[in-house]
Amino acid sequence: MEQDSLLLRDWKIHWVASCTLLRTAIDLFKADAKNCLSHSLREEFRNEWHKISDDRDQHPIFWKFLREERNNIIHEYRWSAYERYFDAESGETASPPGLLTLTSENYGSELKIRTGHFEGQSALGVIDEATGWVRARIMAVFERANIDPDERRNVVTFTVEPKRDGLLGNLLQETKED
Protein backbone atom coordinates (compact mmCIF):
# COMPACT_ATOMS: atom_id res chain seq x y z
CA MET A 1 0.00 0.00 0.00
CA GLU A 2 3.03 2.29 0.08
CA GLN A 3 3.85 2.11 -3.63
CA ASP A 4 4.17 5.29 -5.68
CA SER A 5 0.96 4.50 -7.51
CA LEU A 6 -2.08 2.71 -6.20
CA LEU A 7 -4.37 0.68 -8.37
CA LEU A 8 -7.97 0.38 -7.27
CA ARG A 9 -7.88 -3.41 -7.21
CA ASP A 10 -4.70 -3.46 -5.08
CA TRP A 11 -5.47 -1.00 -2.31
CA LYS A 12 -8.99 -2.27 -1.70
CA ILE A 13 -7.75 -5.80 -1.09
CA HIS A 14 -5.15 -4.56 1.40
CA TRP A 15 -7.68 -2.22 3.01
CA VAL A 16 -10.23 -5.00 3.60
CA ALA A 17 -7.53 -7.31 4.98
CA SER A 18 -6.06 -4.66 7.28
CA CYS A 19 -9.35 -3.45 8.72
CA THR A 20 -10.72 -6.97 9.17
CA LEU A 21 -7.62 -8.46 10.78
CA LEU A 22 -7.09 -5.55 13.16
CA ARG A 23 -10.71 -5.59 14.29
CA THR A 24 -10.66 -9.38 14.66
CA ALA A 25 -7.56 -9.19 16.86
CA ILE A 26 -9.55 -7.09 19.35
CA ASP A 27 -12.79 -9.07 18.96
CA LEU A 28 -10.82 -12.17 19.95
CA PHE A 29 -10.29 -10.64 23.40
CA LYS A 30 -13.90 -11.63 24.19
CA ALA A 31 -13.31 -15.22 23.08
CA ASP A 32 -9.91 -15.45 24.79
CA ALA A 33 -11.45 -14.13 28.01
CA LYS A 34 -13.51 -17.35 28.06
CA ASN A 35 -11.26 -19.91 26.38
CA CYS A 36 -7.60 -19.05 26.99
CA LEU A 37 -5.67 -21.84 28.75
CA SER A 38 -3.74 -19.44 30.94
CA HIS A 39 -5.85 -18.13 33.82
CA SER A 40 -3.82 -14.91 34.04
CA LEU A 41 -4.16 -14.23 30.30
CA ARG A 42 -7.86 -15.07 30.40
CA GLU A 43 -8.39 -12.50 33.16
CA GLU A 44 -6.30 -9.84 31.44
CA PHE A 45 -8.08 -10.32 28.10
CA ARG A 46 -11.35 -9.84 29.99
CA ASN A 47 -10.00 -6.74 31.77
CA GLU A 48 -8.67 -5.23 28.54
CA TRP A 49 -11.94 -5.83 26.69
CA HIS A 50 -13.85 -4.13 29.53
CA LYS A 51 -11.50 -1.12 29.32
CA ILE A 52 -12.06 -0.84 25.57
CA SER A 53 -15.81 -1.44 25.83
CA ASP A 54 -16.60 0.63 28.91
CA ASP A 55 -14.60 3.72 27.93
CA ARG A 56 -15.35 4.04 24.23
CA ASP A 57 -14.36 7.71 24.05
CA GLN A 58 -10.78 6.72 24.93
CA HIS A 59 -10.60 4.21 22.05
CA PRO A 60 -11.97 5.93 18.91
CA ILE A 61 -9.53 4.05 16.69
CA PHE A 62 -11.50 0.89 17.47
CA TRP A 63 -15.07 2.17 17.81
CA LYS A 64 -15.04 4.94 15.20
CA PHE A 65 -12.67 3.37 12.70
CA LEU A 66 -11.95 -0.38 12.87
CA ARG A 67 -15.42 -1.41 13.93
CA GLU A 68 -17.29 0.99 11.64
CA GLU A 69 -15.04 0.59 8.61
CA ARG A 70 -15.08 -3.21 8.74
CA ASN A 71 -18.88 -3.17 9.05
CA ASN A 72 -19.18 -0.69 6.17
CA ILE A 73 -16.92 -2.73 3.91
CA ILE A 74 -18.28 -6.20 4.68
CA HIS A 75 -21.98 -5.46 5.13
CA GLU A 76 -22.61 -2.48 2.89
CA TYR A 77 -19.64 -2.38 0.49
CA ARG A 78 -19.04 1.27 1.41
CA TRP A 79 -15.57 2.69 1.81
CA SER A 80 -14.52 5.62 3.95
CA ALA A 81 -11.13 5.56 2.23
CA TYR A 82 -10.82 6.89 -1.29
CA GLU A 83 -8.04 7.61 -3.74
CA ARG A 84 -7.43 11.34 -4.16
CA TYR A 85 -5.54 12.50 -7.22
CA PHE A 86 -3.51 15.67 -7.22
CA ASP A 87 -1.32 17.69 -9.52
CA ALA A 88 2.28 16.84 -8.66
CA GLU A 89 3.49 20.41 -9.08
CA SER A 90 0.82 22.39 -7.28
CA GLY A 91 -0.56 19.73 -4.95
CA GLU A 92 -4.08 20.80 -5.94
CA THR A 93 -6.78 18.16 -6.24
CA ALA A 94 -7.13 16.94 -9.80
CA SER A 95 -9.62 14.77 -11.60
CA PRO A 96 -8.50 11.17 -12.06
CA PRO A 97 -6.03 10.96 -14.92
CA GLY A 98 -7.22 9.30 -18.11
CA LEU A 99 -5.75 6.17 -19.62
CA LEU A 100 -3.17 8.12 -21.60
CA THR A 101 -1.96 10.05 -18.56
CA LEU A 102 -2.32 7.30 -15.95
CA THR A 103 1.43 6.90 -15.54
CA SER A 104 2.17 10.56 -16.01
CA GLU A 105 4.54 12.12 -13.51
CA ASN A 106 2.19 15.10 -13.46
CA TYR A 107 -0.22 13.28 -11.17
CA GLY A 108 0.04 11.84 -7.71
CA SER A 109 -2.45 9.95 -5.59
CA GLU A 110 -3.05 9.25 -1.96
CA LEU A 111 -5.63 7.48 0.14
CA LYS A 112 -7.76 9.75 2.31
CA ILE A 113 -10.58 9.14 4.77
CA ARG A 114 -13.81 10.52 3.33
CA THR A 115 -16.14 10.63 6.35
CA GLY A 116 -16.43 10.03 10.04
CA HIS A 117 -14.16 10.71 13.00
CA PHE A 118 -10.96 10.53 10.91
CA GLU A 119 -12.26 12.52 7.91
CA GLY A 120 -9.53 14.16 5.85
CA GLN A 121 -6.71 12.14 7.38
CA SER A 122 -4.37 9.89 5.46
CA ALA A 123 -5.93 6.43 5.30
CA LEU A 124 -2.49 4.82 5.59
CA GLY A 125 -1.78 6.95 8.65
CA VAL A 126 -5.02 5.82 10.27
CA ILE A 127 -4.23 2.16 9.52
CA ASP A 128 -0.75 2.66 11.04
CA GLU A 129 -2.32 4.22 14.12
CA ALA A 130 -4.78 1.31 14.40
CA THR A 131 -1.96 -1.22 14.05
CA GLY A 132 0.02 0.43 16.84
CA TRP A 133 -3.07 0.64 19.05
CA VAL A 134 -3.92 -3.06 18.56
CA ARG A 135 -0.32 -4.08 19.26
CA ALA A 136 -0.26 -1.93 22.41
CA ARG A 137 -3.50 -3.54 23.66
CA ILE A 138 -2.12 -7.05 23.10
CA MET A 139 1.23 -6.26 24.70
CA ALA A 140 -0.52 -4.65 27.71
CA VAL A 141 -2.43 -7.90 28.27
CA PHE A 142 0.76 -9.98 28.17
CA GLU A 143 2.61 -7.54 30.42
CA ARG A 144 -0.10 -7.48 33.09
CA ALA A 145 -0.34 -11.30 32.94
CA ASN A 146 3.46 -11.47 33.45
CA ILE A 147 3.90 -13.51 30.29
CA ASP A 148 6.74 -12.97 27.85
CA PRO A 149 5.10 -12.91 24.39
CA ASP A 150 8.33 -14.19 22.84
CA GLU A 151 8.77 -17.29 24.99
CA ARG A 152 7.95 -20.59 23.38
CA ARG A 153 4.93 -22.38 24.81
CA ASN A 154 3.23 -25.68 24.19
CA VAL A 155 0.11 -25.18 22.08
CA VAL A 156 -1.94 -27.78 23.99
CA THR A 157 -0.92 -27.13 27.61
CA PHE A 158 0.38 -23.54 27.29
CA THR A 159 3.34 -24.52 29.46
CA VAL A 160 6.72 -22.94 28.79
CA GLU A 161 8.95 -25.17 26.70
CA PRO A 162 11.91 -26.33 28.76
CA LYS A 163 15.34 -24.93 27.99
CA ARG A 164 17.44 -27.35 26.03
CA ASP A 165 20.71 -28.24 27.73
CA GLY A 166 23.79 -29.77 26.20
CA LEU A 167 25.45 -29.19 22.85
CA LEU A 168 22.32 -29.61 20.74
CA GLY A 169 20.28 -27.38 23.07
CA ASN A 170 22.95 -24.68 22.99
CA LEU A 171 23.12 -24.80 19.19
CA LEU A 172 19.34 -24.56 18.92
CA GLN A 173 19.25 -21.67 21.39
CA GLU A 174 22.02 -19.80 19.49
CA THR A 175 20.15 -20.33 16.22
CA LYS A 176 16.95 -18.95 17.79
CA GLU A 177 18.79 -15.84 19.05
CA ASP A 178 20.35 -15.16 15.63
Q: Enumerate the strands of the largest sheet in spatial order, edge to edge or round the barrel.
A: 1-2
The computed structural class is mainly alpha
Low-confidence stretches: none
* Secondary-structure element pattern, one letter each: HHHEEHH
Q: How would a crystallographer describe the biggest sheet?
A: 2 strands, antiparallel
* Cα gyration radius (Å): 22 Å
Question: Would you spell out the secondary-structure blueprint of this structure?
Answer:
Elements: H1 8-35, H2 39-54, H3 60-76, E1 81-87, E2 107-113, H4 123-144, H5 166-177
Antiparallel strand pairs: 1-2
Helix pairs in contact: 1-2, 1-3, 1-4, 2-4, 3-4
Structure write-up:
The chain is mostly helical and 178 residues long. 53% of the residues lie in helices and 8% in strands. It has 5 helices and 2 strands. The chain has a two-stranded antiparallel sheet. Helix 1 crosses helix 2, helix 1 packs parallel to helix 4 and helix 3 crosses helix 4. The mean pLDDT is 83.
